[in-house]
Amino acid sequence: MERKNIFQGLNKVVVKIGTSVLTSSNNRLDLSVIEHLVEQVCILIKEKGVKVAMVSSGAIGAGMQLLGWEKRPAEISQLQAAASIGQSRLMRVYERFFRDEGINVGQILLTRDVFTMPVRENNARKTMQTLFELKVVPIINENDSIAVDEIKVGDNDTLSAYVADLISADMLIMITDVNGLSCEDPKKNSNSKVIDLVEDFSKAEQMVKNTSTSGCGTGGMRSKVSAARYVAERGIYCVILNGKKMWSITEAFKGENIGTLFLPSNKR
Ligand code: GLU
After folding, report:
1. Ligand 1 test: best mutation among 218, 221, 222, 226, most atoms within 8 Å of CB?
2. DSSP readout, 136-167?
């Protein structure tokens, strides 16, 4: 199927935004990038009738900024405190930009145990369904200020894959700061060619075996490919797009050949 047809057929998507996109090089929230991403999400909602749930990182980064910390602390309690401060700052930013577009947002903070307990999982699903009915955009993050190892998902690439499955999304859209999956680390070689389509996950996994995680976030290409595989096995498309490039989401919806598209390996 052509890219254009795939994107035109989408009804419900999860848009995952990583810390590397939300923050600039000096670790501050990059408000103009966030505003532009919100603008594009609102176009999908208003002009295309797509239901969008967002998974946003950036809580720890935003907390560090408010506390004036330049280096990510190693101490868990300090990370949790930073997340608690940063999460409300992050929501304030989203709330403001969505309100400018006449759209309300709702915050949902999850931990891994929600996905392992049917009652809790069902509650989370119902809440998100109700938010969609109310035309409200759920903004999801891990509940970092209370999550400890036993109940932690650990990174938002994985969390967004769980959410996509939970709400039976048609596509997981991962917004990051590189153009997509490429043969070489684009941080080391800016000319590295982006793979536009992935059907064979074992090949893709081989390519990212040695890649590193980036800056402030906890993800990286490896966790993105593994999240893509998780959703593909459940019949859900996945695309990796560069959020630092203008209009990357709306261009992808027009069928432009940008980013890396992963095809589902199973039917729903
Ligand atoms: N939940 C973390 C935060 O909001 C980010 C995790 C991740 O980057 O994958 O800071």
Report:
1. 218
2. -EEEEEE-TTT--GGG---SHHHHHHHHHHHT
219 CB under 6 A from ligand 1?
yes
Ligand 1 center to 8 CA (angstroms): 30
Burial of 39 (0-12, 13-18, 19+ CB in 10 A): middle
Q: What per-residue confidence (pLDDT) applies to 8?
A: 96
CB 250 within 8 A of CB 40: yes
Q: What is the pLDDT of residues 216-256, one digit of tens each?
A: 344 589 999 999 999 999 999 999 999 999 999 999 999 99
142 lines ligand 1 (CB under 6 A): yes
pLDDT at 107: 98
Rounded distance, CA 158 to CA 160, Å?
5
Q: pTM to 2 decimals?
A: 0.94
Low-confidence residues of the chain: pLDDT under 70: 186, 210-219
C-beta 40 within 6 A of ligand 1:
no
Q: φ and ψ at 151, to 5 degrees?
A: -120, 10
Q: What is the model's pLDDT at position 110? A: 96
Tell me the domains of the chain and their CATH numbers: 3-262 (3.40.1160.10)
Is the CB of 177 inside a 6 Å radius of any atom of ligand 1? no
User: Which atom of ligand 1 is the closest one to the Cα of 223?
Assistant: 9
- Backbone φ and ψ of 55, nearest 5°: -115, 115
Cα of first residue to Cα of last residue in the chain, in angstroms, is 17
